[in-house]
Design goal:
Length: 182
């Protein structure tokens, strides 16, 4: 295993489940909530070693992964202080190094709105993994999801976290590995 440290940001619209996923990946217990302003600054945490080991094999993978939980953004053109905080972090002008990869958490029940940010992040050029969240909500609404087709169209890997931490953990590492082992 290399001694490389990888910084990965969790980005996405407000209320898509970024902090919930951050808690699963890092073992933290930050407050989650479905109202604005719950995450107004960036939080950092180390991904648990069990997940890091699964994220790149014995040789190529990073030794440590720091997750950065960002405030929600609708675009990379900030119109609020929350969005400015997230943007400064992605740009590496917030006093800490810029992340080297991004997990974009998307709300499967509101894909159209969420994918606007995906396009912007792709243009921005950081390696991206789509975490398709709120699948339960989308399924209840009768939406038919085709995540593999979506990922193919965008040219990025995807994973499917779920509210159950076991399933989120299981789906996380192999998919992300292909994005950041490079
Ligand atoms: N139904 C459903 N709710 C979720 C899911 N993931 C997170 N939530 C809930 O959505 C709300 C917002 O989550 P949070 O992690 O704070 O979102 P953030 O604003 O993107 O950080 C919370 O009430 C979570 O419990 C999911 O997959 N399905
Ligand atoms: Mg949050």
């Amino acid at each position: 295993m290399s001694d490389r440290e990888l910084r990965v940001a969790l980005a996405g619209n407000p209320n898509v489940g970024k902090t919930s996923l951050f808690n699963v990946l890092t073992g933290a217990r930050h407050k989650v909530g479905n109202y604005a302003g719950v995450t107004v600054e960036t939080l950092e945490g180390r991904v648990t070693s069990e997940l890091v080991q699964g994220s790149g094999g014995e040789s190529a993978g990073p030794a440590r992964i720091t997750m950065i939980d960002l405030p929600g953004v609708y675009s990379l053109t900030p119109v609020s202080e929350d969005e400015a905080v997230a943007f400064r972090c992605l740009a590496g002008v917030a006093g800490a190094p810029a992340p080297e990869a991004v997990i974009l958490v998307v709300d499967a029940a509101n894909l159209g709105r969420n994918l606007y940010l995906a396009m912007q992040l792709l243009e921005y050029g950081l390696p991206l993994v789509i975490a398709l969240n709120m699948v339960d909500v989308a399924e209840e609404a009768g939406l038919r999801l085709e995540p593999a087709a979506l990922a193919d169209a965008l040219g990025v890997p995807w994973c499917r976290p779920s509210r159950g931490s076991g399933r989120a953990r299981a789906s996380w590492s192999p998919r992300c590995a292909s994005a950041w082992a490079a």
